[in-house]
TrEMBL record:
PANTHER family: FE(3+) DICITRATE TRANSPORT SYSTEM PERMEASE PROTEIN FECC-RELATED, FERRIC ENTEROBACTIN TRANSPORT SYSTEM PERMEASE PROTEIN. GO terms for molecular function: transmembrane transporter activity. InterPro entries: ABC_BtuC-like, ABC_transptr_permease_BtuC. It comes from Streptomyces albidoflavus. This is ABC transporter permease.
Amino acid sequence: MTTLDTRRAPDAAPRRPAGVRTLWLLAALLVLAAVMVASLAYGSRDVPWADVQAAIGGADGTLGEAAAAKRIPRTLLAVVIGAALALSGAVMQGVTRNPLADPGILGVNMGASLAVVTGVAFFGLTSPTSYIWVAIVGAAASALFVYTVGTLGRGGATPLKLALAGAATSAAFASLVSAVVLPRNDIAGSFRLWQIGGVGGASYERIGQVLPFLAAGFLLCLLSARALNSLALGDELAAGLGERVALVRAVAALGAVLLCGAATAVAGPIAFVGLVVPHTCRLLVGVDHRWLLPLSMLLGAVLLTAADVVGRVVARPSEIDVGIVTALIGAPFFIYIVRRQKVRAL
């Protein structure tokens, strides 16, 4: 376990008054509402505002209303998946005290992907609910494997060791996914699109299937907020404050695994949302997880929904999957975080 440097780093987020934090939460809500409206209005064809309003009210009589109505489940799925990935990343960073933690970077998403592909190819899985359960198991196994590898050697689980172990594991799992899928022409086409990551196949049925798993993950993560603040002080001090450190880590990690596993099962392995959003939120509201986690959910939903809109608009009449857009945003940010000084621990 890395030691906590009690000196404030030069780029550490300053403490924010409660009023400022509340304003940021409200601003994030307004931005999310605006992005959701943009998601209904813009795509392969633009929809007038009047038709968007009518579609929200349930109308689908005209071509514009039907187009906007069809985009509603896609928008809702982008919101919940973005919130899940961002919250999962923020909790992983808090649990491991690793500023590089992210479901994609640590190989958790690819572990879930490999589990789903293996289940479909070799065990004949067909039920969407079974996809989710298998993805969660794969995500948990991958997270445990990466953390175990990252703790080997001197210094324990340092951020860079975990990131390297996660990157190697992710690459290995991606190769295994390709090895499983390529010989199977019956599943190769659909899984090739799913591997990129996107929300294009959204439906109310799919949202309903994944929502209970996401709700459980949201609840576990948000209930862990105060305990994660204690963990940031170090394990010994957290135990002295009455926290059961092992239990706190297990519960918070379970919530994060539920979120990224369920999100991957539905939308594919979308990377970097869980890295970019929590770091941005720390600049806005500081490191208190009671504020950081809710804001991460909101801005994660904003980022993924906006990325989906951008992907639809820049390649009309086709579209760029949201996983590609988030990678274009997140990869430079990841390089910046790695190169930043004093990135040993949160």
